[in-house]
Amino acid sequence: MIILRVLVISNGIWLSGAQISANEFIEFLRNYAEIKILTCQQGRYLTRIPASLHKLPCKNVGALLIMQADYTIKKFVEWADITWIATGEFEIARRIRWIKRIPIVAHLHSYEFLCPFMRLLYASKEVCKDLCTILKSVECKLKSDAYLTTLGAKTLSHRLMMSACLNTIWTPLYYVRWKKL
Predict the structure, then answer these.
(1) What is the pLDDT of residue 41?
(2) What pLDDT score does 164 carry?
(3) How far apart are CA 159 and CA 176, in angstroms?
(4) Which domains does the chain have, with CATH numbers?
């Protein structure tokens, strides 16, 4: 019997439906495939099955999570028959293709391409779902902070200082960087 070698890329950072289903699928695959996992150093929501695990530094750019692929990724990709991007690390797909032409399977449920601030799609009472422009992002960020203040998640002084001042400057810069990526 031929054993499939699967390279799983999963950030393991947020406990979400995607992470839970990825863990369940990895556990199912353990009897049918050899598995190696690339994850973020901050990741903690990974499956408990024995698998080769390599942690990479990760950073957020807008809603995109970017894995900083180091030189050891090459040995993982060369080893694999297929790569499965189980959460939102789409940027690493280019690096994989550069190393070896193998099939890449990825979830296409992601909000990362819709808005540079993922929480705006969830916590703003649908205020940010129709359009993503610089002005709309600033408006959504301000409304989101106001909503979080009414829930008690942020203090009024924090909202006034951060939202009114810094978000008006910071949000457009963040948006431009996200759009470029």
Answers:
(1) 86
(2) 67
(3) 23
(4) 4-106 (3.40.50.2000), 120-180 (no CATH)
Q: Looking at the predicted structure, is the pLDDT value of residue 119 above 60?
A: no
- How many CB atoms within 10 Å of residue 117? 22
Amino acid identity, position 178: W
Q: Supply the pLDDT for residue 38.
A: 87
